[in-house]
From TrEMBL:
It comes from the Bacteria. Belongs to the class-I pyridine nucleotide-disulfide oxidoreductase family. It comes from Streptomyces mirabilis. Residues 12-326 form the FAD/NAD(P)-binding domain. The keyword Flavoprotein applies. SUPFAM superfamilies: FAD/NAD(P)-binding domain, FAD/NAD-linked reductases, dimerisation (C-terminal) domain. This is FAD-dependent oxidoreductase. Pfam families: Pyr_redox_2 (PF07992), Pyr_redox_dim (PF02852). Its cofactor is FAD.
Amino acid sequence: MIDSQDVVEDVDLLVVGGGKAGKTLAMDLARAGRRVVMVERGMIGGTCINVACIPTKSLVTSSRLARRAAAAQSLGLSLGKLEVDLRMLRSHKEGVVADMVDLNHRQFLDSGMDLVLGTAHFVAERTVEIDLNDGGRRVVRGADVVINTGTVPHLPSVPGLADVSPLNSETIMRLERIPERLAVIGGGYVGLEFAHMFAAFGSRVTVLDRNPRLLPREDADIAEVLAACLGEDGVEIITGVTVKEVARDEDAVRLVLEDGRVLVADDVLAASGRDPVTRDLRLDAAGVRTDERGFVRVDDTLATDAPHTWAVGDVAGSLQFTHVSLDDYRIVKANIAGGTRSTTGRLIPWNLFTDPELARVGLTEEQARTAGRDIRVAKLPVKSVPRARTMRETRGLWKAVVDRNTEEILGVALLGPDSSEVLTVVQTAMWAGMPFTRLRDGIIAHPTMAEGLNALFTSWVD
C-alpha cells in the first residue's frame, strides 16, 4: 500500500528485472524518447550473460578444445600432455562475462533509460516500491509494466541434499575446483552439458535421471546415439532411478538410490529445473496471478490478469531460451503499441551444446505420428557428410520428418558437429513453407556441414 507521504514517480514504461526481453524493450522505448525505469537487483544484463548461456558456452568451448587436443594425433599434430589450468579456465569465463556485462551497462546508460539498482515489490496496480541497493527507496508507477524477473535453480526435495551444499548450474561455474568424481542429478539439457564439460576437464561423471531413458522428449534413436557419445567420453548415465537420500561421509558425498545402490562422489550437481522469481514480488497487490508453480499467468499476447501489465521470459513460463525471451520482447513491444501479436504457432529451435551438439526444430517422429500425420522419415549418419570426415568428427545422426503428401518439412533433429548452425537453414525453409526438395536439390557449398542436407533428404528409411 502506498504511504501518503510517498512521492510516486510516473513513467511510460516500468520494467521489473533486466533479462533479455525486458532490457531490450526498455532500451528501445527509451531511445524513442519514452520515460523508462528498469529495476534490476544487480545482475546487469540478466541471467543469460551472467550465469547461464554465455559463461556455460564459454566453458563448453574450452571443453571441446580439450577433446580436440586429446585427439590431435589423428589430425597429424603432437601437442604433448593436456593440462587443465583452473585459474586460466576461470579467467577465460569471467573475462567473457565481464566484457558483455560492461557492454550491456554502457548500452543501458546510452539508451537514456533510468537504470535503478534495487529490489522491487508491488504496492498497487502498476506500482512498485524499490529498496535501493545504496540505501533509500523510490515508488514508481508505469503506464505499462513488464515483469521480467527470471528464474533460479531448483533444489530437489531429496532428504539430506541441502545439507551437503550441492552445486547448481550457477555455483558450479565459480570453478573452485575440478571434482575428481561428480554426480549429476538430472539428465536434462543443463545436466548433460555440465556432465560432458566436466568429463572433458577430467572428472569422473555419473548422471542420474529418473526417466526410463535419456531425453524422453526426443526420439529414442537420437537419444540413444547421444547417450553412446557421452558414454564414449566417460560420462556414465544411469536412467530410471531416483535418489532416496544424500549424506556426507568425511570428504565424500554418499547418494543412496531407491533401488539400494550407493554412489560416492566428491561433489553433487543438482540440475533438475528452475523456479520462478516471484515469491517476494507481492504480485497480489498488482492484481497479477501465478500458477501453482509460481510462474506468472499470461495469455498468448503475454498479458497478465492485470491491465497494462505484461510478463516475459522465463518467469512467464516461456521456454527457457534467450532466443524465446527475445521474441517475447517483440510481442510485448507490438502489443503495448496496440498490436495483437501472439505466441501461438512459434517455431522454436532447441540446442543442446554437448559434443557433438544436438539441434532440433519442429516435430519429432513420435509427435508427428501421434498427431496423425502421414510422414516420411529420413536418417543420415554424420560420417556420411564429407566435412565431418575432414574434421574427424563423425559421431552423430541427422533425422528429418516430412509430410508424405505435401512434402512439407515437419521437423529435424541434427546430432553432430555445428548442428546448431545447420539447423537455421532448415528452420528458414520451414518458415518459407518450402518443400523438402528445395534442400535436397539446392546447390550448397562443398565441403560444409550444411551440404549434408542434400544427402539427408534422399536417405529415406520410412
